[in-house]
Design a protein that fits this description.
1 helix; 199 residues; 14-stranded antiparallel sheet; Jelly Rolls; 8% helix; globular
């Protein structure tokens, strides 16, 4: 067997051994959310194929999924707002990681910045990546073998390689959180796509 054939065979065997990944798409075409998804907010509605909030809100996916995943969604705000993805341990409820796309002033970071947190500790910060009102952004977060990456409109932002990736017994759940300055500020989330493996 020549070298090329051996490499192709090894790749094929690795693909067979890897667990199958699911793709979950949430386009808000229907008012009722699929099983496993829930919204927490004082004011929200599914309308015209979008999830629309007035003020703060959370889109929660109970999972459980393996901690390696890729999540994208589109979001916009009428006023200053921030979007975060929080990764929680299903078994303990502990907050493992946060991908934070800044659109509001953050007193600890002393500005409008995007960041990755491990637990409650900032581990990667990018002052060049931030969001602003009146524009729809595409948010992307990747987690693979302890390597976390954030993208905004396809541009790479904060990156963190965890020297001791957290281990979970029952997998993780995901929470997309949007935070506004005013209780009536309008925010939209749409086209959520999650590539993951069930825990």
């Amino acid at each position: 067997m020549n070298r090329t054939a051996a490499v192709l065979l090894a790749a094929a065997l690795a693909a067979l051994a890897a667990p199958a990944r699911d793709t979950v798409t949430l386009d808000f075409a229907k008012e009722k959310l699929p099983d496993g998804w829930a919204v927490t907010a004082k004011s929200f509605k599914v309308e015209a194929g979008e999830l629309r909030f007035a003020g703060d809100g959370i889109l929660d996916f109970a999972g459980p999924i393996a901690p390696d995943f890729r999540l994208t969604f589109k979001g916009s705000s009428a006023e200053k707002a921030s979007f975060e993805l929080k990764v929680h341990d299903v078994a303990t409820g502990a907050e493992l990681y946060t991908f934070a796309f800044g659109g509001r002033y953050h007193s600890v970071l002393d500005g409008v910045k995007s960041s990755i947190l491990r637990g409650d500790r900032f581990v990667a910060v990018d002052g060049r990546m931030w969001i602003f009102p009146g524009r729809t952004f595409t948010f992307e977060m990747r987690s693979a073998k302890g390597q976390l990456q954030m993208f905004l409109d396809g541009v790479l932002g904060p990156v963190f390689v965890d020297p001791q990736p957290v281990a979970t017994q029952k997998g993780v759940r995901l929470r997309i959180i949007e935070g506004t300055e005013g209780s009536k500020d309008k925010v939209v989330i749409d086209d959520v796509v999650l590539e993951c493996t069930k825990a």
